Amino acid sequence: MGDSGPLKVESVEAHFRTLHAAMLDEFNRTGAVSYGNRAKLARVQTFWPNDPRVIVPVAETFVHTLNNHLFKSCALKTAHAGPFPEKERVLEAVNSLDPATSTIGDSFVELARYKFQSQLENEMYYHPEMSQDEQDGIAAAFSCVRAMDCHTCDLEFDINNENFRNGVNSLFDMDAATENDSDTEDWDSAFFSSVAVAHGAPWEGEKKVLDIEARTEFWRWHVTEAVPNAFGFALSCVGLDELD
Q1: What are the 10-residue block averages of pLDDT along the chain, 244 residues in total?
Q2: Which of 66, 58, 100, 63 is nearest to 240 (CA)?
Q3: What gap in Å lies between CA 44 and CA 169, rounded to an integer?
């Protein structure tokens, strides 16, 4: 038996409020939400710390649903940022995603997203002469790719597995505190979306004119609307009482 108390909805809400308050405080201080705090939303232990009763399938479903909703919301929020290959088909695929069930409603999501990602990487690495508008579009496209990946990723929720106890999954690098500490394949939709609207990553300020105000407004939306909405959606979809 763990030491986190009864697994009531109220307990889950309390743990979320603690993290959300930290995210809001961070935003108010820095104008952004860190990779480390965003990654905590993908950890079962954020909502049920040290409790071995959190087992498949309810815990997996709750965390997956929350992140599905959040990644999809971010991708759609900034899809307008610029042009990118096969944009109409990609947005159709993202819109088809069902956060509640991880349903893949379009074959593009399951079968072609890897090819599409390779196409984006080729555009990025082999066409450095891209306009700023095109660069913004590539970042927005990667946000869409990560939303697709989120819906199809394998989360490790085996109570006897050390990765489960450490909160490891394939959405984030759980050992990283910032994007610079992780590979680009571990960046989430939110970060790619922030890059799209700001015309670059935070560390590119010396070589680009970044739109700090747009980036700040994106993170404001993320922490005040997208995150609470995703949590509320997951809470309404998942039968947490099954864990009582």
Answers
A1: 50 90 97 93 77 60 90 96 88 88 60 68 70 92 90 56 47 75 84 96 86 97 97 84 50
A2: 58
A3: 10
Report the amino acid identity of residue 180.
N
Q: What angle do CA 152, 157, 162 make, to 5 degrees?
A: 125
**Cβ(78)–Cβ(197) below 8 Å:** yes
Q: What would the 3-class secondary structure string for the chain be?
A: CCCCCCCCHHHHHHHHHHHHHHHHHHHHHHCCCCHHHHHHCCCHHHHCCCCCCCCCCHHHHHHHHHHHHHHHHHHHHCHHHCCCCCHHHHHHHHHHCECCCCECCCHHHHHHHHHHHHHHHHHHHHCCCCCHHHHHHHHHHHHHHHHHHHHHCCECCCCCCHHHHCCCECCCCCCCCCHHHCCHHHCCHHHHHHHHHHCCCHHHCCCCCCCHHHHHHHHHHHHHHHHHHHHHHHHHHCCHHHHC
Neighbours of 41 (CB within 10 A): 25
CB 164 within 8 A of CB 156: yes
Closest CA to 152 of 95, 75, 67: 67
> What six digits make up the tokens of 155?
């989360």
Omega prior to 57 cis, within 30 of 0: yes
